[in-house]
Structure formats: structure tokens, C-alpha cells
Amino acid sequence: MAQILDMPLFNLADSWALTLVIFAPLVGMVLLWLPPPGDDKGIRRSALFASLVTLALTVLVVFQFYSFEPAVRQSRAYAFTCHVPWIAGTAGDSATIDIAYRLGVDGISIWLLALTAFLMPLAIWGSFSGIRTRVREYYSLMLLLEVGLLGVFCALDVLLFYVFFEFTLVPLFFLIGIWGGSERRRAANKFFIYTLAGSVLTFAGVVYLAYYSFTVLGTATLSIERLIQAAQAGHIAPAVQWWLFLAFAAGFAIKVPLFPVHTWLPLAHTEAPTAGSVILAGVLLKLGTYGFCRLSIPMLPNASFELAPVVAVLAVIGIIYAALAAWVQKDVKKLVAYSSVSHLGFCMLGLFSLKVIGVTGGVVYMINHGLSTGALFLIVGCIYERYHTRNIHEIGGLARQMPWMAFFLIFFTLSSVGLPGLNGFVGEFLVLLGTATSKATSDLRAAGPLGYGYVIPAATGIILSAVYMLWMCQRVLFGPLKEPANTPDTSTGLTKDLTRREISILVPIALACVFIGVYPKPMLDTFKVAIERNVLRDVLPAERVTAETSGLSIPADATQDTQSGEGSPAEPDDGVPAQPADPPRDSAVLASLTDLDTTGGPKHER
Amino acid sequence: MSADSYLAPLAPELILLIGAGVVLLAGLMQSGRRGPWVSMLALLVVLLAFVTALRQSVPDGQAAVLGLWLTPLTFYTRCIALGIGALIVLINWYQPVTEERGEYMAMILLSLLGVLLTASANDLVVLFFAIELVSIPTYVLIALSQTDQRASEASVKYFFLGAMAAAVLAYGLSFLYGVAGTTTIHTVTEGVATSTLPSGPDIGGLALVGVLLVFGGLAFKVAAVPFHVYAPDVYEGAASPVTGMLGFVPKLAGFIALIKIFSACNWDLPVVVWWIIWIVAAATMTAGNVLALLQRNVKRMLAYSSIAHTGYMLIAILVGPVAGQGPMHDGVTALLFYIAIYGAMNLGAFALLTAFRSQGRPVETLEDIAGLAVRAPLATLAFAICVFSLMGFPPTAGFLGKVYIFSSAFSLDQPHPFHGPLIALAIIGVVNSAIAAAYYLRIVSAAYIGAEVDWPVRTGGIPVRLGLALCAIPMLIVFVWPAGLAGEAQSAAALVNRSIQPQSTQVTSLAGQEGREAIPTGFNAQDRPQSESHPPGDSTGSKTQH
From CA B408, how far away is CA B447, in angstroms rounded? Predict the structure, then answer.
């Protein structure tokens, strides 16, 4: 493998690899126009090919990322960085504006990048039977959506981030509006306007940030790296942080969606075509949490700390409320949609514990939710294509008709409710652990904002989620057979049970779930490094003191060094003994938890 | 100086003027046949003027001649007016349906000539004439554009209100003359700066009235509330290609004139005027967007949208020039950048309406364009790009336009009295752009999602579609590479900035002349942390001088 990675192509790739990955789907769109009109098969294949090429490129990038020695990886905050001036301005000799096409990935974004590139071919493949009209436009929009999503995870400039973030709305608007269900126009409009209404405030925040960075740094820079440094040095005034936090949260919270502003999501999900739902739940919702994690928390540490309880309370309310709402849904798809709201609440809870364990949990949760919920939406799509209904009361006992589907539905349900050994558990466990131990202090890390009070209702949410998901499974899969008249509809070439195509789509996701459930270490390692360095560097007050006493222009690693040098009980250790009796199955997770520390070791010693 | 050296810099204007005559004659000669070659001739004239304007070296503010003063602002305005003017000719290629194409094209050329003269006018009287030269041909154009009654009604309505606005403008300019004692804008500025003006007890009030009246007259040209009421009716009555032109050409002239008048006042506006403009800006964008939401007719919708865009641009006018902080922090640069983009994207939206007919008439309503994407994917794509650009959505130039405008609004520093109000206005602006998204989205979703009612028949030939493409493609190019246009806009704004920034403490202002009622605003924003720190309120110094 090492030889492949040392090929000249990928040494060069340091600067433009990400550009290649992001815009590969755009190039792929050209392929869609090669087959003659009407040749739907050719168009579908071209789209799948384009997304697979993107996946291949992403995999190469991921491998190369991993091929860096940990030391090398830690010596720089982001890998594959590139910098092309975009909006620039000068006054005399000095640059007054520095907004650029900046790309780069760290341990967090590389996995979200991989998730996007992984889900997209599956979503495209999954639409082969469902999409019959305006095929070329459909796949063009899917690829366009992929460009936007990949771009968000690579952007290292706030304005560029915002551009990609906003841009994803356009293809999804058309995907829902053209190929959606009966209320598609309303759903598409609501989705677009609702999310836009929030993100225009984010836009105002971004613009203000550019101006503010001009007043404090002398350059209107929107470089995420430089702004985080400025925040570390205490350049961003607390009052400004509050406003910026609120402005950013307006856009991100709607996207997540956080409790009071989640109402667009169930409608959008129910009306979206299957692949739209998969991508919406799998990746698009993560843009919100990713925004919090990449921009709000590191750049606005004071405000994040002070507002964390508010966010956490909303997250907890969302967890319980959406779980209860999911419980009473008749529409299977809506049920899964509400479960998304509930699960994203966990994700937010983890992020705002502001401790490495909790944030790691939150990020793992993003990946896991993308896999399990994406797969659940695919399965619901399979059911719908055959029975033309998603009403729980109209279908039942399908396990005998569709054993493969039953297997996958139960598998992903269990993954979604957090069965130990599958992926969901890792994230849930870390989130709860991080939240519970958030208050714990050591001599160097100050107390986090959250505590046990948040864990109890959140844990209730887990129980609820098990209840409604399993109940749904029971009603759909078991009991007496119930099928609407004239179904299953096999006219479009589908078989009664899942076709080989559909199974091949679900198997990779299932494998990924098992892999993450059993061996999350490679992922957690990179998360830990990235989180310590790019997210939580300076969030808790005590750390800030350390940073200030050790000088502002210290190399990026220095703060970490001093900390670990003096206080060997880094905070994961505080957490591990505190955890309640562990189920025997989670030994792998425990191992990875301890690894979470030991892998950090070499770095600390250097 | 020989006649040559007077006239050479005015080559683009002369080409337009002579071209207009030639086109007029050509139209007469070929009566009976309606070949496209009159349009071709008009296009050639505009392109020739465009190339000439581009090839001229950017003037560095040479001495004024013939009441004209060539500055980088002139250069910039010429380029965008002629560049977009070429697109206007393309989109009007098959207009009018009757046989007066020679007159019609000549009117377009004369109107463009008016914009060019506005940009170089250095005399209040020349400015007035130039602005009227922009407007008067448009009355004719509206009447010629369609044969039905609506067009005549629109034309008459526009003419009467326009005449009224012209009277208000002339009245205002006469007050300014009264205050300054000269009609030369250049001298007005210098005179103000060196405080050699005849000063008396009343002059402050007179100047205030003058500036207000001028603003009122120009508010009509740019369609700002409350002088916007004509816009929807006139825009709807005129044929789509004319409407596309109406949304841009008078607006450009109006904003250039505003820049000139305000820079003659050193941008140190009396607080009353400042707040009036603030209210007008807020009301304009809100009224434009909210009323657009209620429309079913795309042309009316776009008419209200063009009112809303005036509101955004007024934000930049309020910010004014903030010298030396790069394009994002200077209101005039942001305005000049935005208006060029706005011209193209607005025109693109109307180009689509020109290109298709439904039920025997040009497409106008949401129902008419329903399902157009299936029928004409490329044209609809270009249209969608323009509409998303109007919405201010990435990845289009309209987004960067919004970035520039709104970031300019954030550029006054904390102690500045207008710091808070401008931020409030920017917030109103972004909230408005969310409202605007609702109706722009309705247009796009009609074209893409709506079920076809009646398949529109394509009418506009290659020129119209070319015009549509040339409106849409730059939206993407400017998004990727804004530096070119922004750089030009910045250098165009530079002299505006420089002329209002003479040696610091001697700056006095109209506001200063007015004595007590004018709160010192320090509008020249020299109180930046980077520039040599300067107490807010230049006019404080001037007051002590008096």
C-alpha cells in the first residue's frame, strides 16, 4: 500500500487532492450528457461511475492521510491544505482582505468526507428503480449535491464554508420538489425557506466576522485557522462572541435540527425521494453539527461555554420530544425522520459537553447516524417501492415475505438504538460518558458546562428510541401478513424480497456498522487528535490560562505538551473509572477508550 | 487646447451619438422590410463604443472640459453601461413588433448616451440634462415596445411622473447652486472643502432642502419608496426586453448622480438627510420584497424585486466612501460592484420572458413559465442562474454583491453614531433577502417543478438566447473571480474617496456650514483603527473655524 501512496500523483496531491475530490462529481456530470436522451440505463451507469470515481479518490486521500506518521499528522493542523486568493483587497502595501479558497482536512472532516463519498454511490445506485422521469436531471442534481457536501467538509475559510453550506440547498430543493411525494412542492419550499431564513443570519454573522477580524487583526480574514488562533489569543471579545454564536446557531441549529426549529425536517423527509432522504439524513444534517464543531466551538469558546447549557437543554428536550413524536407516527418514514431529530440531539449534547470524550462521541455519532439512518431510509424506500404505502397499519408480517429486508431492518434498527457491538453504541456511550464527566476537573482542565443532570433524560431517550424502533419493527415485520391490495408491485422489475442490487447496497453499510462497532480505534484516534487541536484547544477556561501563560506565539503543540507533561491524568482518565458497570460486550470500546489516551502519548512525549 | 484634445476622450459618447443618428436613418431607409440589420447596426455601434471606452486609458481626473470631468468613475460606468448596453440590444433584437426599429434602437443608444454623460458630468446643469437624456428615450421605448393599451398607459404614466421627478430634481439642483454659488460640481466640492463659499445664516437650511429635493428626484429614477409606485405598472406595461432595460439604465444613472451629488457634499450628510435615507432604504427593500410576494405575474414580481434591490444599494450609499479599506469596506465600491452584477442578472431574467411566448403573447405569469425546464433546459438553466443570483445565492455573483454591500454596512466603528443603525439596516437587509428567496424560489420552482400548462413556443432567436447566456455566464465567472470587477469598482470609487478626503482637519462640510442642526457625523470614516486615528466628527473642527 505504501508504494501506491508514494506514487507521484499523490505526492503532488498535497495541495490539490481535495479540489480534485470535490469537483470530481462535477466533471462526472459531463458524463451524464454523453448517452443519448432516453438511454436511462446509460445515464444511471454514468452517474454511478462518477460517484464511484469520487469514492475512489476519497479513499486514496483517506489512505494517504493515514499513511502520514502520527507525528507528521500532528505537526500540522490540517492536511492537504490549499490556498488560492478569492476576495482580496489591499490598502497600500498591506492586505486588508484575505478571503480565500482554502481547503484542508483534519481527523474529523476526513471521516465525514469519507462518509459522504461512501453514501453517495449507494444512494445513486438505490435510485435505479425508483426514478423514472427526468433521469438525467436527477443524477446531475445528485452529483451537484455531492459537490456541495464534500466542499463543506473541506472548506477552511468561513465564507467558502458558507458558500458550500448554502449551495447544498439548491440541488436538494429540486430533488425534493421534482421527484418527491404528493406534497413535494410545499415540502421543498418549506425546506428551502426555513433553512435559508436561519442561514441568512449566519451570513450576517460571517460578514460581521470578516469586519471584526479586520478590526482586531488588521486583515479581514475568514481563515478558520487564523480565527481560531485569534480566539485563543483572546482577541474576540465575549460580547461579540455571543452575537456571533447566536448568528451561527441560527443557521446551524435549523440544519441540525435542534428542538424548536426542527419542524421542516419530518415534512422534507417524508416527501423526499429515497435517495434524497438518505443524503438528507446521512450527510446534510451533519452540516449543522459540523458547523458547530468546526466554527462555533473553537472560534467562540466563551460563548460556547456559557451557552452550552442552553443548547444542551434544547438537545435534551429534542431527544425526548422527538422520541415521543416518533412513537406515535403511522408513517414509517416519518418515524425514522423523528428518530433523526432525537439522535441529533445526542450529537449536540456530546459536542457541547466540551470535553474530548463527549465531542469524540458527538462526531462518532454523526458518522453512525449517517450510516444507520441512511440505511433505514433505503429500506423504507424498498418497502415503499413494493407496497406504495408506508403506513404502519397497512403493512405487517413482512418478515415471511421479505426475509432479507427483515434482516437488514432489524440489523439497522439495532445499530440505530445502540446495541453494543454495533456502531451506534460507541457514539451513544461516549456522548453519555462525556456529558456525565463534563463537570470533572483536573488541575489543568476546568469543569465543562454539562453534568449528570443531562444524562438522565438523555438516557431515557435511548430507552424510548429502543421502544419505538423495535415496536415499528415488530409491527412491520411480524404478526399476521398484511399487504395492501395488488401488492407487492413487481412491475418495475423488483422481486418480492430485496433484489440483489438492493442487498449489495445495504451490505457495505452493514459492514461499516460492524467495523465501527467492533474496531473504532482508527477513527477515534484521528478524532482525538483533531478535536484536541482544532476544536477544544481553548474552550475551557483553565486551558486558556495555560495558553496565555505559555505565550501566544507558541507552536501549536506546545499547549498540549505542557498540559500532558504536568497533569498526566488527562481527562479521559477521569471519566473511565467513573463509568457504571459495563456490559461485557463493550470491551472493544473500552480498549479504544484507553487507546484514546495512549495514542496521544507519543505526541505528548515529543 | 485644440478641439481634438477636447473630443478625443469623449469618443464613446460621440460614437453613440453619431451611431444613434445613423441607426435612425438606417431604420427609415429600410421601411417595409424588417430585417435584423438595424439591430445589428445598433449592436455594432454599442460594441464600438464599448471597445473604444475600454481602450482609453483610465482617466486620472484631468481638468474638467465642457462641463464634463473624466474620472475613473466615468471609465467604470462607461464600461458597464456599454457592456450591459450590448446585452440590452441583443435582447431587444426583434423589438419592436411594429416597424419603427430604427427609432427604437436609436432611443436605446441615446439612453445609454445619457448614462455616459451622467457619469462624466461635472456641472449641475449637465448632470440634469444627462439624467433627462436617460429618461426621455425610455418614454418612447415603452410606447413603441407594445401595441396594446397597457404600453401606452405605462408610457404616459411614466412620462408624467418622470416629468414631475425631473422638476423636483431641477428644483433641488437650483438650491445647491444657490448655496454653492457655482454649478460646477468639481468646484462645489473644492469650494466646500476650502470653505470659500458665501456663508450666511440661511444657507444650511437651503442646502438641506436642496439635498433632499435632489434625493427625491433621483429616488424616482432608482425607484425607491415612496417614489416607486409607478414601477410595477410601468414594468408590466412595457414589453419584457424594455423592462429589463428600465430596471437597470435609469437606476445606474440615478445612483451615479447620487454619488456625484453626495460627494459634492463631502458625504457628510446632515443627520436628518441621513436618517431619511435610512428609512427610505429600509422601507424600499421591505416594501419591494413583501409586495413581490403577493404577485403572480413574473414581470410584476421582478419589478418589485428591482425596487428591493434599490433598497440594498441604498445601504451602500449610506455607508459612503470609506477610503482605503478595500472593496468590502467601502460603500461606493460595493455599490458600483453590485449595480454591474444587478444589471446583468436582472436583464437575464427578463431575457427569458422575451424568449418565449405562450397563448399568443409573451410569457408573463408563473403559469406561463410552468414546466419550462423540460421544454428548454438550457435557457431555463441560464434563467435559474440569474434568479438565484438575484436571490443572492451562492455560487453566483449576486451572492458576492450581497457580501460586499452588507460588509460595507458593518464598516463603521463602534464609537461612530451610525455604527448601530447601519448594522440594524444590514440585518433588515439579510432578513429581506430571506423573504425575497420565497418569491424568487416560486419563479424557479414554477419553471422546474410546475406541470406544464401550455408549452411556450420559442420566439427569441439566437440573439436573445445569446443575450440570456451572456447574462448568466458572467454570474458564475464573477463569483469565481471577483477580483477583476471589484478592482475596477474600487479604482472607480477611489477618486470619489480622494476628492472627499482633503487634508484632514481642514475638511469642512455642508453639514458644517449648517451650523448647529447638523450633528457631526465623521462620515468620512477616518476614525478607523488602521488609518491615522482621527476623532469622529470632522465638522467639529470646522465649526470652531466659523
Answer: 34
> Strand A94-105 to strand A220-221: parallel, antiparallel, or no bridges (unpaired)?
parallel
Distance, CA of A511 to CA of A427 (rounded, Å): 17
Higher pLDDT, A553 or B427: B427
Whole-angstrom distance, CA of residue A368 vs CA of residue A362: 10
Q: What residues of A are in contact with residue B490 (Cβ under 8 Å)?
A: 89
Task: Measure the CA–CA gap between A516 and A114, rounded to whole angstroms.
Answer: 13
Chain mean position to CA A53: 22
Question: Domain map of chain B by residue range?
Answer: 3-542
Tell me the C-alpha distance between A508 and A120, whole Å. 12
CA-based nearest distance B352→chain A, Å: 20
By Cβ distance, the residue of B377, B394, B430 closest to A204 is B430
- List chain A domain ranges: 2-535, 541-605
Number of H helices and number of E strands within chain B?
23, 3
How far is the first Cα of chain A from the last one, in angstroms, to the nearest whole number?
27
Give ∠ CA B144-B146-B147 in degrees, rounded to 5: 95
Contacts of A335 (CB under 8 A, 6+ apart): A326, A329, A392, A468, A472
Q: Is the pLDDT of residue A555 over 70?
A: no
Question: What spatial distance separates the first Cα and last Cα of chain B, rounded to whole Å?
Answer: 40
DSSP assignment of A502-519: HHHHHHHHHHHHHHHHH-
Are B383 and B475 in contact by the 8 Å Cβ rule? The answer is: no
> How close is the nearest chain B Cα to the Cα of A93, in Å?
11
Helix, strand or coil for residue A97?
A: strand
Q: Distance (Å) from the C-alpha of residue B403 to the closest C-alpha of chain A?
A: 7
Which stretches does DSSP call E strand in B248-363? 356-358, 361-362
Alpha-carbon distance of B483 to B479, in angstroms, equals 9
Q: Do A185 and B393 touch (CB under 8 A)?
A: no
Question: Complex ipTM, two decimals?
Answer: 0.87
- The pLDDT tens digits for A262-282 are 989 999 998 999 999 999 999
Closest-CA residue of B relative to A101 is: B480
Picking from B338, B445, B476, B485 by the largest number of A CB atoms within 10 A of its own CB, the best residue to mutate is: B445
Say whether pLDDT at A8 is over 70. no
Cell of A272: 423526499
- Are the Cβ atoms of A178 and B448 closer than 8 angstroms? yes
**Residue B200 DSSP code:** -
φ, ψ at B362 (rounded to 5°): -60, 150
Residue B407 has a pLDDT of 86
Nearest CB among B427, B442, B482 relative to A204 is that of B427
pLDDT at B504 over 60: no
| Max Cα-Cα span within chain A | 80
Q: Which of A255, A241, A156 lies closest to A199 in space, CA to CA?
A: A255
**Residue A41, min C-alpha distance to chain B (Å):** 20
Pairing of strands B356-358, A94-105: unpaired
In the three-class reduction of DSSP (H, G, I as helix; E, B as strand; rest coil), residue A82 is classed as: strand
d(CA A124, CA B114): 55
* A378-431 per-position pLDDT tens digit: 999 988 888 888 888 888 888 888 889 999 999 999 999 888 888 888 889 999
